[in-house]
Amino acid sequence: MPETSHDVSQLTALILAAGKGTRMKSALPKVLHRIAGEPLIGHVLSTVERLGVARTVVIVGHGADAVRAALPDAVQTAEQREQLGTAHAVLQASPALAGFSGEVVILSGDVPLLSPETLHAMLSTHREAGAALTVLTFRPEDPSRYGRIVRDSEGHLSRIVEYKDATDAERAIGEVNAGVYLASWPQLVSALEGIGNDNAQGEYYLPDAVTALNAKGLVVAAHATDDPIEVAGVNTRLELVALAQAYQERAARYWLEAGVTIESPHTTWIGPRVTLGEDTVVEAGVQLHGRTRVGSGCLVGAHSQLIDAQVGDEVTILQSYLSESMVGDRTIVGPFAHLRNGAEIGSRCRIGNFVEVKGSVFGDGAKASHLSYIGDATVGAKANIGAGTITCNYDGERKHRTEIGSGSFVGSNNTLVAPLKIGADAYTAAGSTITQDVPDGALAFGRARQAVKLGWAMQRKGIKQ
Ligand code: UD1
Ligand code: MG
After folding, report:
1. pLDDT at residue 162 above 80?
2. How far is the CA of 40 from the centre of ligand 1 (A)?
3. Does residue 88 have an active-site annotation?
4. pTM, full prediction
5. Separation between Cα atoms, residue 343 and residue 96, nearest integer Å
6. Ligand 1: distance of its center to the CA of 16 in Å?
7. Helix-strand-coil percent breakdown of the chain, rounded to 5?
8. First and final CA of the chain: distance in angstroms?
9. What are the distances in angstroms from CA 60 to CA 37, 191, 239, 402, 438?
10. Residue to substitute in 86, 91, 234 for testing ligand 1 pocket (most ligand atoms within 8 angstroms of CB)
11. Closest approach atom of ligand 1 to CA 177
12. Measured at the alpha carbon of residue 229, what is the angle toward residues 226 and 235, in degrees to the nearest 5?
């Protein structure tokens, strides 16, 4: 990401997300529909995060509780109970921003691909012009539903007219309002408090602030972008998929240019908050979501899915599912492993096929190579867990921990009944059910002794020998 070229320490982001999204035909609020595993509103938050704003206020309305629940704690919300228009929506932030005299950047929660670079360019225009308000504009192929940008004879932005209120001559204007604004918060508020809703939709229009601020003799600027994808909004599932494809291409290009091999860009999903190190190879069908970080020189094998995973350098992950987990350098995971709920795997470990690790810590060099469930356990460095071992961490009411000492050897097909402590350099015999602690260096058996009945098969058939 480029260095911040403007001081944004006083900048507040306002994200409008109260609308219903009727055309999605969905019980889910529109801004919670996903692209690359990230809700649309998460894409917008990632943009303002990368821009480096001081704080963010999201205007919620339809599905307010669900939207709030999807937001990080640091993000404030203000509720717009009735959707009376975009100007009304912005004013709902007034209590949250009481006494704030800086700048706001206003964005829509359903416009996911806007880049921090475009907002930086817009900030340049805004500050160089000494503007009270700057509007982002563009020229879409089909400008039908957008507000038209009306300029005066000197080319200054004089007003914005909504399509439904526009004359035929105004409808012929190709430049439109992208719905992204920069403004001085006190000046914007005083302008918005004076506007009415006497228009075709009976709504309080945010773009009417242009007229109001011009009337006060303040500077209103327009900043044009030539990338329609960045300002495209999602209104239907068709548009969601089209923008998802555009996002996917952009994300793949970004990482390819950053030194990451994306073998099959059109089958790979890399969320906006993911980071990848140089010389990492991402194979076909991989999904990298949330705050996943993968170091350098790794292989993320085909069809792996990583959600909020932290992966070190030179790690190999083969067709596995990792969520909220950490993996240290040079560890090999999979194929078909499942790491979840705070699994912390050290370096040079081995988590093999059909091994599930939940809420457990593996010290460096520890191994569980085949067919195991390791839950709520601490596995010491270089311990080896035999095939088919299960930690019985749940007694039907509570979860209990299992401690496995460093250098210990848990035999194949062990049942480890927690709470349990196996000491350092201890051994347990194959097929054991271990219910009592095993001291350091000891060998524990916990299985029925084998009996052998000679000649039993012949006797059964009644044949005397
Ligand atoms: C708006 C602009 C239009 C611009 C277009 C760009 C107005 C009046 N018009 O039109 O000039 O070309 O965006 O996409 O602003 N929202 C609320 N509360 C409300 C109304 C809307 O939170 O009461 C939110 C919506 O959820 C959405 C955003 O504001 O995220 C824009 O609203 P929308 O109804 O899509 O405005 P448009 O009619 O598209
Ligand atoms: Mg819209």
Report:
1. yes
2. 16
3. no
4. 0.94
5. 39
6. 8
7. 20, 30, 50
8. 85
9. 21, 22, 22, 45, 56
10. 86
11. 12
12. 135
